[in-house]
Design brief:
Blueprint (H helix, E strand, L loop, with lengths): L3 H10 L6 H21 L3 E9 L4 E8 L19 H8 L1 E7 L2 E9 L14
Antiparallel strand pairs: 1-2, 2-4, 3-4
Helix pairs in contact: 1-2, 2-3
Protein name: PAS/Protein phosphatase 2C-like protein
Organism: Actinokineospora spheciospongiae
InterPro entries: Anti-sigma-factor_SerPK (IPR050267), HATPase_C_sf (IPR036890)
Length: about 120
């Protein structure tokens, strides 16, 4: 499986169809979810990003190896870490699907393409 840095690079390269602020927000969500899977889920078992152009939705799904659901924690503002799922929660609708090997954490965000051409995200 790719490292967090490799996944950031793959995703970022495929978000050119979005306005830069929106691409930055979606990338931040993906980065936080990847970090959470590495830090609390035993690593990444699978990673998918989809763009539903007709509905204007971006979805990221990350499989990990822990059955424990992510927690949204009101982080101490003096701490450098610990607010990842709060960021995800603030920018997306998200949830968890349990599986035999762990779980899939998903997040969905609305999007608007910069142009009217059909666009797709191909990471994963």
């Amino acid at each position: 499986m790719a490292s967090a840095a490799e996944l950031r690079s793959i995703i970022g390269a495929d978000l050119e169809f979005l306005a830069s602020e929106q691409a930055d927000m979606f990338l931040a969500v993906c980065v936080e979810m990847v970090a959470n899977a590495f830090d609390h889920g035993g690593g990444i078992g699978g990673f998918r990003v989809r763009h539903d152009h007709s509905r204007g939705l971006l979805t990221v799904e990350i499989d990990d190896f822990s059955s424990a659901p992510p927690r949204v924690v009101s982080g101490d503002p003096t701490r450098l870490r610990g607010r990842g799922m709060a960021i995800v929660d603030g920018l997306t609708e998200w949830g968890v699907r349990r599986s035999r090997d762990g779980k899939t954490v998903w997040a969905v965000m609305t999007c608007v393409c910069r142009s009217s051409t059909r666009c797709a995200v191909s990471a994963g």
